[in-house]
Amino acid sequence: MKILHFIPKFSSISQSFIYDLLLRLDKIDHVDNTVLTYKRSQEKERPYKDVKIIKSNTLMERLMYKILRKIGCKRIVAPNIRALRRELNKKNDYDIFHAHFGNSAYKAFIADDSVEFAIKTVVSIHGTDITKNFASKKKYREVLISAANRGCIFLANSQFLASKAIELGLPRENIKIVYNTVNEKFLNAERELPYADGPLRIISIGRLIDVKGHEYLIRAVPVLKRNIKNIQLSIVGDGINLSKLKNLVHDLGIDENVHFLGSVSHDKLPEILSNHHIYVQPSIIYEKTGQEESFGIVILEALAVGLPVIVTNTGGMPEVVNFTSSKWAKIIPQKDEMSIAKAVNEIIDNNKSFKLKDPDRINILEKYTAEKQTETLLDIYSDVIGNYADET
């Protein structure tokens, strides 16, 4: 079984889950993986044996494209699409074309709109490629729906994302659920660190953008300080809201309590998480775009290390923690710092009962094992190969 994985930038710092998947698939004897990409990044941190770089267009081609667009030629094909088309037109003997993210699939289907190509293609969708782009970009939506109607299969990482895709026009029968999983290095870092009399250490990880809801977590700190003398909040990630959030921290007078750690290598996250007591994901529904968290893999990573988690009732996050609040997972309303503070205090009150063998924690983690993800994906690959053989 030969799989050609199309990942425009391989491997972005935030896409460790794709790299982990490739490494797991490589361990299976009958699976042969190749990555097709425009740009190779983190080559030292994430080495990979078989990567094809799509040859870039010449300066003259790029210049000609800009000139033609400027004078109103709307049907001219972008240089990066032409380069991808040349690669796809080569004699490729792969069984499956796996596009990671809807944006990748859009480029691929512009490059090759044949029925034969669609039938052997699967597309992993992860969030904004559906909740934002699919909803707002007509051409993007038309291309992906057309591909689905020609046989392409879409892989959603949650029931929430699948329902969004169906709502926006993808056929239900073309969508399969393949849950994300957690890297074993987080399970290897598990520990019991109940809160005692020292500083209460809370952590949140994510890009500093509106949909992540960091503002409300920061606003919860002064509320918590009414009862907790020593509280420390660590925020991991970079983004356009950094200055705004730092100003908010200063205005609230909590500079000594909130620490912005910036972008951190995924390999360092297990250790960082293990030095905290509670994980909070305060994400919101961003009204301007309708964007929501589709899954939130870092929630699983925090649980794997041994942290109880607090998530908002948005997107696929309640699904990650089995839809119900429990000792290990609190589900709260969005945009509500008082609810965040209340959930933190409830966790502190139960802190002595957080044991790694607790059924609440185990039941959540067992749903998302790497073995289940790999088995599900291989079954889908086999079905796609069978359908291709029947249709051609």
From TrEMBL:
This is Glycosyl transferase family 1 domain-containing protein. InterPro entries: Glyco_trans_1 (IPR001296), Glyco_trans_4-like_N (IPR028098). PANTHER family: GLYCOSYLTRANSFERASE. It comes from Marispirochaeta aestuarii. Residues 17-184 form the Glycosyltransferase subfamily 4-like N-terminal domain. Residues 194-352 form the Glycosyl transferase family domain. Gene3D superfamilies: Glycogen Phosphorylase B. Pfam families: Glyco_transf_4, Glycos_transf_1. It comes from the Bacteria. One of its GO terms (molecular function) is glycosyltransferase activity.
